[in-house]
Write a structure and sequence with these properties.
The complex is a heterotrimer of chains A (273), B (305) and C (485).
Chain A lengths: L1 H29 L3 H6 L8 H11 L2 H32 L3 H11 L6 H18 L8 H5 L6 H11 L5 H8 L4 H12 L1 H17 L2 H6 L8 H9 L6 H32 L3
Helix pairs in contact in A: 1-14, 3-14, 4-8, 4-11, 8-11, 9-10, 11-14, 13-14
Chain B lengths: L9 H6 L3 H33 L2 E2 L6 E2 L3 H8 L1 H32 L7 H9 L6 H11 L5 H8 L13 H30 L2 H9 L4 H29 L3 H7 L10 H11 L4 H26 L4
Antiparallel strand pairs in B: 1-2
Chain C lengths: L14 H17 L4 H43 L8 H4 L1 E6 L5 H15 L4 E6 L2 H14 L8 E5 H10 L21 H4 E2 L2 E2 L1 E3 L5 E6 H6 L12 H15 L4 E3 L5 H8 L19 H15 L3 E3 L3 H9 L5 E5 L3 H5 L8 E4 L19 E5 L5 H10 L5 H11 L26 H11 L9 H16 L4 H15 L2
Parallel strand pairs in C: 1-2, 1-3, 8-9
Antiparallel strand pairs in C: 3-12, 4-5, 6-12, 7-10, 7-11
The chains are: A mainly alpha (273), B mainly alpha (305), C alpha/beta (485).
Family (chain A): Belongs to the binding-protein-dependent transport system permease family.
Subcellular location (chain A): Cell membrane
Organism (chain A): Paenibacillus etheri
Chain lengths: 273, 305, 485
C-alpha cells in the first residue's frame, strides 16, 4: 500500500513537472531580449519590463484584451445557456425524431472550419449592408456563428445521462413547470458540469483565431491572438516581445481556470463523508 | 449502475396528461441551437458541398462533376496527409485518453494530498493557445533545444535527436505536443464526471473487498462510458482536423512527413493559387472519415437503448 | 440551503412550491444516503466566490480599458468611418501590410509625408501578419464581396501573380501612373500581367553574402578572395573555416528552399517556364546544379541545420556561422548583435559554376503595393504614384530611418545610398546592394511557386536520403504536372 502511494505521488509529480515546464521556459524567455531568446538562454534576464513596455507601446494591447474579454464572456454565457438547454432537451425528452435531429447536429462538428469559411463570410458580408452592427468587423459577427457548438450540446447530453432522473419525476409531481425543472433542479445540480463547460468554452473563445481573423478588419476591433500573430511576422521579429505577449495572453485564461476550479474543489471536498 | 434511466420514457409520455405539451416543450429546449447550427454550419456546409464539385482558380470556378473526388486518389500529397493523420490517430488518441483517465482516477482519490496543485498543474497546458504552445514546443525540441540538452546530460542519448527535421522524430514530436496539450483537457471531463458518481458505490465495493483495479474496471469505466465515448469522438475529430501544431512546429515537414489533412486544405486554399473547389473536396473527405469512425465508435462503445 | 429562483417568466412555481420542493429534494437525498447535498451546498458557496471574483475582474477590466482607450478614442473618432466604404467622401485610404519594423514603418513614413501636403486624405494603416493578409484577401475576394477590403495591400512578389490572375477584376490597373522602366527590371515580372502594370514595386530582396571576416581570416581567406567565386569554391572555403574555427559556414532549413530559389534565379531560371505555368523541373540545368550543390553542402559538414526563423537569426547572432547568403533585409537582424560590429562584411553572392548565365546577383523575398478595385481606388493610386512610385527623396528617408532598399532606380543616386556603415567596416553596403539589384535576372515567378516548392521539398528529402538526382527531379516533374492545372 505504501509503495502504491509512493508511485502515485511520483507519477503525479512527474506529470505536473512536465506540464509546468514549458510555462517556466516561457516566462524566462519573456524576461530576455530577442537576441538571447534566439540563442536559447535558460537564465532569467532583466528585460521583462522593457519587453512589456515595448509591447504596450507598439500595439494597443489593452484594447485587444478588452475586445477578447468582451467576446469570450458573452460567447461563454450564451454557449452554456443554449447548449445545456439543448443537451437537457435531447436527453430528457428523448424521442426517435429528436435523436435523429441530434445526430444531424453532431455532423456539424465534422467539417473543418476552413471549408465553411468562405460561405460564412459571404453571409456576413451580405448582412453588413442591411444590419451593420451584425455585419463584418463587429464583435457580434465573431460571436454569432461560434456560440452554438454541437460539441457542447454533445457534452451536456452525455453528462445528463448520469443525472438522477427520479428527481425530475419528483419535481414534476410537485407541480414544477418543465422550464422550472430545468432552471431549479437541473442547473443547480449540474454545477460542476457547467464549470467544466465554462472553462472549455472560455478558453476556446479566447484562443479562437481563424474566424476573428477573417471577419474582423479594423485595428481597434482586433482580438489578442490576432495581435500576437502580427508580432511574429516580419524580417526581424522581436522574440522577447513575443514571449512576453504570450505570457500576458495566457494569464486571463489561467485566471478563469483558477476561479472556476473552485467548483471542482467544492464538489470534491463536499463529497468527503 | 450502468443502467441508465431516461427522464421520460415514451410510455410515460403517452400515459401522462400533458404529453403533447411536454413533447413540444422538449422541442423548445433544442430549438435555438437547431436554428443556429442550421444557419451557421449546415447552410455553409451545403455551399461547400456544391463547391466540392467545382474547380478553378480563385473566383472563376466551373463544375467538373466527380473529377475532384477522383483526383483525391491520385494525389500523393493528399494520400500522405491521410496516412500521417491516421498514424497520429491510432497512436496519440488512445495514449492520451488512457493517461487522462488514469490521472483523473488518481486525482479523484480523496485521501490524496496536494490534489489542487496536481490538478491545476496538469490542466495548465489547456489554457495556452494552440499557436502559443506550438511556438514554445518548437523551441524546446530544436536540435539544440532544452530537451536535447537534458537528454544528453542524463546520458540517455549520445548525440542530439533531430526532433523537428527527421521524418520519424518529427511525428513523435507532434504526438508528444498534442498529448501534452490535451491530456489535462480530457482529464477535466473525466474528473467532472467522476464527481457526479455516487461515492457510496465505491465504499460498498471496498467493503466487498474489490481491489482498486476491479473497482476501476467494474465501476468507473461503465459509469464513465458516455463521457469516454464523448472524449473519444471529439479527440478523433480534433486529430482529423489537426492544424496549428503541425503548421507551427514542423510546417508539415520534413518533406511531407508530418503534413495533416487540414494543413493540406489550408495550403490549397491560401498557400497555393487558391482552388477552393478542390479544397472543399478534401474537406468532405474528412467528413466521410469522421462519419465512419464515429459510427464504429458508437457501435463499440455506445449505449444500447 | 437555498435554491436560486431564476428570472424565468415561464416558471409557474412560486416561492412556496420552491421551498416545498427543496424539502422534497433534501428528503430524496437523505433517502439515498447520499452526500450530494453537501456538494450542492459547497457549490453554491463556490458560485458566490466566483461571482464576486468575476465582478471584480470585470470591473477592473472596464476600468483599465477605459483608461487606455482614452488616447485611442480620439484618434478613431477623427478618422471617421473606417474601411473602404467611407473613402469617397473623407478620402480615407486603408492599407494592409505586415512587419511593423519594416513595411508598416515605411508606409508610415510615406503617409506622414503625403498627409502633410494633402490634408484631405487620411491614411489608415492596418497591421496584419502576411499569412493573415493572404487569408483575408482570399476569403474576401472569393466571396465576391468588396466589403471590408482595403484600398492598398502589400503582396509578396512570389504570390503576386496568383492573386492577379485568380482575381483579375479585383485589382486596379496602374499602367498610366507607374512607369515600369523606372524600376529594377526584375520587379516588373511579378507586378504586371500582359504588359499591364498592377503593382508599385517596393523593397528589393537583393541578396548578398554576409560574412564574418574574422573567421575567414583565421581560415586564411581575405575578403578580396570572395569577390568572384562560385558555390563550389564557397564549399571549399566553408570546409577550411570549419576545420580552422569549428564554425559552420551557413544555416539551412530543409523545409525552406530559399537557397535553391536564390541559386536558380541567379541564372535566370525558375521552377516554371517563361509562361509562369509549365513546370520545368527536368531539363533545368540551374535547378539540377542547385540541387547538387545543396546536397554537397549538407554532406560536407559545413551546414548547421535549422528548422525555423529564430534559429536562423540565433545562429549568426551567437556567432555560430561564418556566412549568411541571403536577402539584404537581414541587415537589421545582423546588426542587432552590436558586439559583432566591425566583424562583418558583405560580399557578392557566389554564382553557379556550370550553368550558363549565372550572375553574382539574385533575389529572395521582397514585395510590392497593390490598389484594390474598390471605392476610393483613384485616391489610393494617386497616393502611391506620388510616393513609392516616384519620390526618390522618400527612399532616402526610408533607407536611413527604416533600412529599406528600394527598387526605384532613381533612388540609388541619393545620398543615403552612398553612406558608409561602420558595422560593416565602413563598407558602402547600401550602394553595393543597389548596384546588385539592377543585375538581378528577371524571371516569371508565375502562380505556382509555393505549390511547386512543397513538391521540391519532398524531392530534396529523398535526394538527401540517397536517391539519384535525375530520378528525384523526374518524379517531382510528374507530380507537378498532375497537381498544377
Amino acid at each position: 500500500m505504501k509503495t502504491k502511494r509512493m508511485f502515485t505521488y511520483l507519477f503525479l509529480i512527474i506529470a505536473a513537472l512536465i506540464s509546468i515546464f514549458p510555462f517556466i521556459w516561457m516566462v524566462i524567455s519573456a524576461t530576455n531580449q530577442s537576441v538571447d531568446v534566439t540563442k536559447g538562454t535558460l537564465l532569467p534576464g532583466t528585460h521583462l519590463f522593457k519587453n512589456i513596455n515595448n509591447l504596450f507601446s507598439s500595439v494597443d494591447m489593452w484594447q485587444a484584451l478588452w475586445n477578447s474579454a468582451k467576446i469570450s464572456v458573452v460567447t461563454t454565457v450564451l454557449s452554456l445557456l443554449v447548449a445545456s438547454a439543448a443537451g437537457y432537451g435531447f436527453e430528457m425528452y428523448r424521442s426517435r425524431s429528436k435523436d435523429i435531429v441530434f445526430n444531424i447536429l453532431l455532423a456539424s462538428m465534422m467539417i473543418p472550419f476552413a471549408a465553411i469559411m468562405v460561405p460564412l463570410f459571404q453571409m456576413f458580408a451580405k448582412v453588413s449592408s442591411v444590419v451593420p452592427f451584425l455585419g463584418i468587423d463587429t464583435a457580434a459577427a465573431v460571436i454569432l456563428p461560434t456560440f452554438t457548438t454541437a460539441f457542447l450540446i454533445f457534452f451536456f447530453r452525455q453528462s445528463t445521462k448520469m443525472f438522477p432522473k427520479d428527481m425530475m419525476e419528483a419535481g414534476r409531481i410537485d407541480g414544477l413547470s418543465e422550464f422550472g425543472l430545468f432552471f431549479r433542479i437541473y442547473m443547480p445540480t449540474m454545477k460542476s458540469t457547467y464549470a467544466a463547460a465554462a472553462i472549455i468554452t472560455f478558453l476556446n473563445s479566447w484562443n479562437n483565431y481563424l474566424w476573428p481573423l477573417i471577419v474582423l478588419q479594423s485595428q481597434e476591433n482586433m482580438t489578442v491572438p490576432l495581435l500576437i500573430s502580427n508580432l511574429g511576422s516580419g524580417y526581424a521579429p522581436d522574440y522577447g516581445l513575443i514571449m512576453s505577449a504570450i505570457v500576458i495572453t495566457t494569464l486571463p485564461t489561467a485566471l478563469v481556470f483558477f476561479m472556476m476550479q473552485k467548483q471542482f474543489v467544492a464538489g470534491m471536498t463536499g463529497s468527503v463523508k | 449502475m450502468g443502467n441508465i434511466k431516461t427522464g421520460l420514457s415514451p410510455q410515460k409520455l403517452k400515459s401522462s396528461k400533458g404529453s403533447r405539451q411536454i413533447h413540444l416543450t422538449g422541442w423548445l429546449f433544442v430549438l435555438v441551437p437547431v436554428i443556429m447550427i442550421s444557419v451557421f454550419y449546415f447552410y455553409p456546409m451545403i455551399q461547400a458541398l456544391i463547391l466540392s464539385f467545382k474547380t478553378g482558380r480563385g473566383s472563376s470556378l466551373h463544375f467538373t462533376g466527380f473529377d475532384n473526388y477522383i483526383r483525391l486518389f491520385s494525389d500523393t500529397t493528399f494520400l500522405t496527409a491521410v496516412k500521417n493523420t491516421f498514424i497520429y490517430l491510432i497512436i496519440q488518441v488512445p495514449v492520451m485518453l488512457v493517461l487522462a483517465l488514469f490521472i483523473a482516477v488518481l486525482l479523484n482519490d480523496e485521501r490524496l494530498k496536494f490534489k489542487g496543485f496536481f490538478r491545476t498543474a496538469i490542466f495548465l497546458p489547456t489554457v495556452t493557445s494552440l499557436v502559443a504552445y506550438s511556438v514554445v514546443f518548437k523551441y524546446m525540441f530544436g536540435a539544440e533545444g532544452i530537451i536535447n540538452k537534458f537528454l544528453v546530460n542524463l546520458h540517455l542519448i549520445s548525440e542530439p535527436i533531430q526532433w523537428i527535421t527527421d521524418p520519424f522524430w518529427a511525428k513523435v514530436t507532434i504526438i508528444i505536443a498534442i498529448t501534452w496539450r490535451f491530456t489535462g483537457y480530457n482529464m477535466i471531463f473525466y474528473l467532472s464526471s467522476l464527481q457526479n458518481v455516487d461515492k457510496s458505490i465505491y465504499e460498498a465495493a471496498h467493503i466487498d473487498g474489490a481491489s482498486a483495479f476491479t473497482q476501476f474496471l467494474k465501476i468507473t469505466i461503465p459509469l464513465l462510458k458516455p463521457i469516454i465515448l464523448f472524449t473519444t469522438i471529439t479527440s478523433t475529430i480534433g486529430t482529423l482536423q489537426l492544424f496549428d501544431e503541425v503548421v507551427n512546429i514542423t510546417k508539415g515537414g520534413p518533406g511531407n512527413a508530418t503534413m495533416s489533412i487540414s494543413q493540406y486544405i489550408y495550403n490549397l486554399s491560401f498557400e497555393y493559387t487558391p482552388d477552393f473547389g478542390y479544397a472543399a473536396t478534401v474537406s468532405y473527405s474528412i467528413v466521410v472519415m469522421v462519419l465512419i469512425l464515429t459510427l464504429i465508435q458508437n457501435k463499440v462503445g455506445g449505449d444500447k437503448r | 440551503m437555498r435554491i436560486k429562483t431564476g428570472s424565468n417568466n415561464n416558471t409557474k412555481a412560486n416561492k412556496d412550491t420552491a421551498k416545498e420542493y427543496e424539502y422534497k429534494m433534501i428528503r430524496w437525498m437523505r433517502s439515498r444516503e447520499n452526500a450530494s447535498i453537501f456538494i450542492i451546498f459547497q457549490i453554491n458557496k463556490g458560485v458566490y466566490v466566483v461571482k464576486k471574483l468575476l465582478s471584480i475582474m470585470l470591473a477592473s477590466v472596464v476600468l483599465l480599458s477605459a483608461c487606455s482607450t482614452g488616447g485611442t478614442k480620439n484618434e478613431t473618432s477623427n478618422s471617421g468611418n473606417s474601411g473602404a466604404e467611407g473613402s469617397t467622401q473623407a478620402k480615407e485610404i486603408t492599407v494592409w501590410a505586415w512587419d511593423p519594423a519594416f513595411n508598416i514603418a515605411a508606409m508610415n513614413v510615406a503617409k506622414e509625408a503625403y498627409e502633410k501636403v494633402n490634408s484631405d486624405v487620411k491614411i489608415n494603416v492596418v497591421e496584419n501578419a502576411q499569412a493573415d493578409i493572404v487569408q483575408k484577401l482570399n476569403t474576401g475576394l472569393n466571396s465576391g464581396s468588396t466589403k471590408g477590403l482595403p484600398n492598398i495591400v502589400l503582396i509578396e512578389d512570389y504570390r503576386a501573380q496568383s492573386f492577379l490572375q485568380a482575381y483579375p477584376e479585383s485589382f486596379y490597373e496602374l499602367t498610366d501612373l507607374v512607369k515600369a522602366d523606372s524600376f529594377a527590371d526584375y520587379k516588373i515580372g511579378p507586378t504586371s500581367v500582359d504588359g499591364k502594370q498592377y503593382g508599385v514595386p517596393f523593397d528589393s530582396g537583393v541578396t548578398g553574402m554576409y560574412v564574418r571576416t574574422d573567421y575567414l581570416e583565421q581560415a586564411g581567406y581575405s575578403l578580396d578572395a570572395l569577390q568572384d567565386i562560385d558555390w563550389k569554391q564557397y564549399i571549399e572555403i566553408g570546409k577550411a573555416v570549419k576545420a580552422k574555427t569549428g564554425k559552420s559556414m551557413l544555416t539551412l532549413d530543409p523545409n525552406d528552399l530559399g537557397q535553391i530559389r536564390v541559386m536558380i534565379q541567379s541564372a535566370g531560371a525558375w521552377y516554371t517556364g517563361k509562361d509562369g505555368q509549365t513546370p520545368t523541373i527536368t531539363d533545368n540545368a540551374a535547378l539540377k546544379e542547385a540541387f547538387v550543390i545543396y546536397k554537397e553542402m549538407m554532406d560536407s559538414g559545413i551546414v548547421k541545420v535549422i528548422s525555423d526563423w529564430s534559429q536562423f537569426v540565433g545562429a549568426f547572432n551567437s556567432g555560430e556561422v561564418a556566412s549568411v547568403p541571403t536577402g539584404n533585409w537581414i541587415t537589421a537582424s545582423i546588426k542587432a548583435e552590436a558586439s559583432q560590429s566591425g566583424k562583418w562584411a558583405v560580399a557578392p553572392l557566389p554564382k553557379l559554376a556550370t550553368t550558363e548565365g549565372s550572375v553574382h546577383a539574385s533575389n529572395l523575398g521582397g514585395s510590392s503595393w497593390y490598389v484594390m478595385n474598390v471605392d476610393g481606388k483613384e485616391a489610393a493610386a494617386e497616393f502611391l504614384a506620388k510616393t513609392f512610385a516616384s519620390d526618390a527623396e522618400l527612399y532616402q528617408t526610408l533607407n536611413t530611418k527604416v533600412g529599406v532598399i528600394g527598387t526605384l532606380k532613381a533612388a540609388a543616386s541619393g545620398e543615403a545610398y552612398s553612406a558608409t556603415d561602420e558595422f560593416f567596416k565602413g563598407q558602402k553596403v547600401v550602394s553595393d546592394f543597389a548596384a546588385w539589384t539592377e543585375q538581378i535576372p528577371n524571371v516569371n515567378y508565375g502562380m505556382n511557386t509555393y505549390a511547386i516548392e512543397d513538391i521540391m521539398v519532398v524531392a530534396m528529402q529523398s535526394y538527401l536520403g540517397g536517391k539519384d538526382v535525375d530520378t528525384v527531379l523526374k518524379d517531382a516533374q510528374k507530380q507537378a504536372d498532375t497537381q498544377i492545372r
